[in-house]
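Quiz preparation item.
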């Protein structure tokens, strides 16, 4: 960041002004600059990177990795002949590791802004009129900038429960959950989705007794049903407890912790559940507060998201939106791809994103990854399909590394064999899913994966075997 940028004394006219410095915004800014446009990015935080880099994806993965290593050293290495004793948790140092990881990533984005000559305007952005953006810095007077194109990339915020007041001390959001000063003896996680399971896993590994309360009768809603069942079984085996089909209707806090009132979702007698810390993880909502969208006529949908066309343009010409603030999965990589595609469209090129080929990963252990359709979706659509499955218990590499939980599940069109979806519960599922995404992007078939030579011994052989199983010819089961 240049000195002039830090003082918000950049030039007044740009080809593109982006409001929001998270994955969607900063990647869009970089690609616009690469394509020869003059670019400014408004970010109210003191650092770039948005929720993902600062209080979301990156710090949570740092804690997931560190807590996993701690648990391995404490509980699992002995089975491989590595005797450990006196393993202790140094939470302060673990949190420093998290902070160091975050700092390295945010400074990396700042470097990329310098490299690509992008002006970072610190403060809160709002749209004053078509082609005009107002910057309100933390100190000093507001300023107005002109832009041919305005991009809304303000991301999302924590979804709250009206009856629970998040104080980030006893009742916390995901932001508070990555920064607890000590390991709570007991924790209740409200919400059995990605964030709840990941953060619940972290604190369970570090010594908390964790209970997950979920309104629906299953965890991981939206994922393949078989994956959901398997994940619950594995996580229960690890020590997580679940109360499904339940809703939290009230909370009282005192020095001893939090007392929740919990009722059956379908109605019935209430009970109380006590915990030292309560994590509210029921999802996220698009962040459009203070942008002045109503004043300039930008239409929002029923969920508060910016309505856009196929080119990411809102109802007002010259105003665009990407990422969590528009329809689609709230995933950082989805936002990044949209930012790139939009930049290329603004440059007169043709951009493309296939929303059926966006992978989703949950970083519990084993990891959970998916792309494409679930079996339930195919049934609802009336699509004829075949299933190929292969368990990691039958994979040589998985046995060698002592990680045999889970399976690979391949869904293919019954007539054409076109790959329709892949679902993985298992070690390094985040990496294994990439091959499947690539094949789906090229319109490939299960047989295409089956006929590719996979190195031995590797976990990726489980993907090949599942693809073979879809054709009725698996070799190792």
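Solution:
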């Amino acid at each position: 960041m240049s000195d002039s940028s830090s003082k918000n004394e950049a030039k007044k006219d740009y080809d593109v002004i982006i409001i929001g410095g998270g994955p969607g915004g900063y990647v869009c800014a970089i690609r616009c600059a690469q394509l020869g446009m003059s670019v400014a990015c408004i970010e109210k935080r003191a650092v770039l990177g948005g929720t993902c880099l600062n209080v979301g994806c990156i710090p949570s993965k740092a804690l997931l990795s560190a807590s996993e290593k701690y648990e391995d050293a404490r509980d699992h290495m002995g089975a491989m002949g590595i005797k450990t004793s006196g393993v202790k948790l140094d939470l302060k140092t673990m949190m420093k590791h998290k902070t160091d990881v975050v700092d390295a990533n945010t400074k990396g984005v700042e470097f990329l802004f310098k490299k690509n000559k992008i002006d970072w305007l610190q403060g809160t952005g709002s749209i004053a009129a078509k082609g005009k953006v107002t910057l309100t810095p933390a100190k000093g007077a507001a300023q107005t900038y002109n832009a041919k194109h305005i991009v809304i990339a303000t991301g999302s915020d924590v979804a709250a429960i009206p009856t629970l007041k998040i104080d980030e001390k006893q009742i916390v959001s995901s932001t508070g959950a990555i920064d607890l000063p000590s390991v709570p003896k007991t924790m209740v996680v409200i919400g059995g989705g990605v964030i709840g399971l990941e953060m619940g896993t972290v604190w369970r590994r570090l010594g908390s007794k964790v209970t997950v309360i979920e309104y629906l009768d299953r965890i991981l809603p939206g994922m393949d049903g078989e994956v959901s069942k398997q994940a619950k079984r594995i996580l229960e085996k690890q020590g997580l407890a679940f109360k499904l089909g339940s809703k939290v209707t009230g909370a009282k806090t005192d020095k001893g912790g939090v007392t929740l009132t919990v009722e059956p979702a379908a109605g019935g007698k209430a009970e109380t559940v006590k915990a030292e810390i309560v994590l509210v993880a029921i999802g996220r909502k698009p962040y459009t507060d203070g942008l002045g969208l109503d004043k300039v006529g930008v239409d929002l949908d029923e969920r508060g998201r910016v309505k856009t066309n196929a080119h990411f343009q809102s109802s007002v010409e010259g105003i665009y939106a990407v990422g969590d603030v528009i329809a689609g999965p709230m995933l950082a990589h989805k936002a990044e791809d949209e930012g790139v595609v939009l930049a290329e469209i603004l440059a007169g090129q043709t951009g493309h994103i296939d929303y059926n080929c966006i992978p989703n990963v949950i970083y519990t252990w084993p990891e959970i990854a998916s792309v494409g359709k679930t079996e339930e979706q195919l049934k609802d659509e009336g699509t004829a399909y075949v299933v190929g499955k292969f368990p990691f218990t039958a994979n040589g590499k998985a046995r060698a590394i002592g990680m045999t939980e889970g399976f690979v599940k391949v869904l293919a069109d019954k007539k054409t064999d076109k790959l329709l979806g892949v679902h993985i519960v298992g070690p390094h599922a985040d990496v294994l899913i990439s091959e499947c995404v690539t094949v789906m992007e090229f319109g490939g078939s299960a047989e295409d994966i089956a006929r590719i030579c996979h190195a031995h011994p590797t976990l990726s052989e489980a993907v090949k075997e599942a693809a073979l199983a879809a054709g009725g010819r698996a070799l190792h089961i």
